[in-house]
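Our consortium's second objective concerns turning raw sequence data into structural hypotheses that experimental partners can test. To show how far this objective has progressed, the report includes one record in full. It was chosen at random from the queue rather than selected for favorable results. The single chain below, 318 residues long, was entered without modification.
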Amino acid sequence: MSAAPAPHLESAAIAPLVRRAAAQVNAVILGKSQQVQLCLACLLARGHLLIEDVPGVGKTTLAQALARTLGLTHQRIQFTSDLLPADIIGASIFHREAGEFRFQAGPLFAQVVLADEVNRATPKTQSALLEAMEEHQVTVDGQTRHLPEPFFVIATQNPAYQIGTFPLPESQLDRFLMRVALGFPDAAAERALLTGESRRTLLPALEPVMAPAELLRAQARVPQVHASGALLDYVQALARHTRESPDFEAGLSPRATIALLRAAQAWALTEGRDAVLPEDVQAVLGGVIGHRLRLRAERGLNASIDVGLRVKNAVPVP
């Protein structure tokens, strides 16, 4: 059975919890405070997170640090080319003593699921995540099984140009509320990494700073954060620009527009506000739309262009 709706947590109580969580994760992942706050906002908005970057920049460590800091059960799935859907969902296994089939849950049945290098699996296995990410449930042998709450998928992927990768289809990409890139650390952070202990050795010492029940109440508060008519006009103007601009193959869908608003509401909560400001929309814009928009090749635009910055600069704040 799915969890009952949680009562709301007051906005004033959410920001300190988020700051404590962010501070603990930032002690492990150095120099990436903006990305860490985006990850927490994504979780508050009940979204799923895609971390895309080259190997070795801390994608897996970040996911594990988030799970431990929030006191959530977590499982790591290493995606490979021979991984099957049943390997992540589970399967019914015959028990001879009982004379019946019993469902053996797979690693997907955790509150935080780290899908490591998700684009190394075949499209068939990638698609097995679709129902789980959208509906928070899976169907096995005709029976629907609900996943734990909260349910948060953190997928990591290597750049598409690397050998042995299968690009995620648009339908799969759209299931991720945000995509973030960690990038290389600055000089100070890298020196701390060189002279300090391994980041992974710090993980077992992380203590939960937020109970799962508190997280559910915080998530329930996000849709209640006020968005004025002018703010909604701004969100719609951003979406309309992507649909009318000749730079993009297709604009933002209504689902993407809703995702942008929810992410902005969550960001406002992390800042301790009960209302969304245009600055909140701008803070999450790149993470929400960057993986949903594709530049037209014939326009001759640089593929590495910051889509979020381009759209933000093109649409004035009302």
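The partners drew two points from this record. The chain has 13 helices and nine strands. Residues 1-6 have pLDDT under 50 and may be disordered. Both points have been shared with the crystallography group to help prioritize constructs.
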